[in-house]
Design a protein that fits this description.
By secondary structure, the chain is α/β, with parallel strands linked by helices. It is built from 11 helices and 9 strands. The longest helix is centred in the last third of the chain and has 15 residues.
């Protein structure tokens, strides 16, 4: 199996991270220009609101600045990622009604505006970490500015794209050759649950497409947060699809830490934690499918 092979080679100093290679070959500069051009009629994510973000906010309420909620050395990620220098970007491209980072994603907190050179300097100060972990909220609205930040990063450190995976095809093409590890959040097994709980359309087709591309172009770890009452409609279909399409190209993290947050109380099935039976069903199903999973 290929899982995390290239990533581990980078950690051992046997291989340069992809953004370093892209920069040395002049590819990074070209990708920055492509990403900035998209801002003129934004379609970085699949909402494709097509606003000129140099003049007005997109659906995500982000314009043309790096807006950071927080950054710190993270020890709570998957064991092979820690310590991880994690940058939480402000806002999100989803509207998850049960979001556990709701104060960031739903824009209740005030962000800190940063320059790419400033963020790059902070990253270099934390180069004792195993990686840079771009998350949020959601990093996708900030793609041009994240790439520009990497232009100034001096350290040889792998890049993790920690995302809801609702990136547009244009964004996926720009990310190719830059990202070492994709860390996805595969939430729903059908479009109805996605629309009801995260206010997004055409979820499954977009998410599946992006997972196929991610598995082809970099290392891939898939997170699936098990939702109460959603084992049959979401967890099992997601695991089925992974088993049929990218089984040998990813690690699946089955997460049991759901807790009711934000507007979860408005949805009867979500107004509780998952029970042991639900977790055991998902775990047992992953074993039946012979998935490469952790929990």
């Amino acid at each position: 199996m290929r899982q995390l092979r290239d990533y581990l080679l980078i950690l051992e100093g046997k291989k340069l991270p992809k953004f370093k290679l892209a920069r040395s070959r002049g590819i990074l500069k070209r990708k920055i220009n492509q990403a900035k051009k998209i801002l003129e009629s934004c379609e970085l994510c699949e909402r494709k609101c097509h606003v000129n973000r140099y003049k007005e906010e997109g659906w995500c309420r982000v314009k043309d600045k790096l807006l950071v909620s927080s950054y710190f050395t993270h020890y709570g990620e998957e064991y092979f990622f820690v310590p991880s220098f994690t940058v939480f970007f402000w806002s999100c491209t989803f509207s998850c009604q049960f979001c556990q980072n709701w104060s960031i994603s739903h824009r209740f907190e005030e962000p800190q505006t940063m320059k790419p050179k400033e963020l790059a300097s902070i990253i270099d100060e934390h180069n004792y970490c195993k990686n840079i972990n771009f998350v949020g909220g959601e990093p996708t609205p900030y793609l041009p500015f994240i790439l520009e930040t990497l232009r100034y990063v001096k350290s040889n450190i792998p890049i993790i794209w920690n995302s809801n995976f609702f990136m547009s095809l244009k964004s996926m093409k720009i990310l190719k050759g830059i990202i070492d590890v994709y860390l996805s959040d595969f939430k729903y097994g059908n479009d109805e649950c996605a629309k009801r709980l995260s206010k997004v359309d055409n979820y499954t087709a977009i998410i599946k497409r992006n997972h196929l591309l991610a598995a082809k172009n970099a290392e891939l770890v898939i997170r699936h947060l098990i939702l109460p009452g959603h084992v049959e409609c979401c967890s099992k279909p997601i695991l089925d699809w992974i088993a049929k399409n990218i089984k040998d190209k990813c690690i699946v993290n089955l997460m049991d830490q759901y807790r009711p947050e934000f507007y979860a109380y408005k949805f009867k099935e979500l107004n509780r934690t998952i029970n042991i039976s639900e977790f055991e069903k998902v775990l047992g199903y992953a074993k039946e499918l012979n998935l490469n999973f952790i929990f």
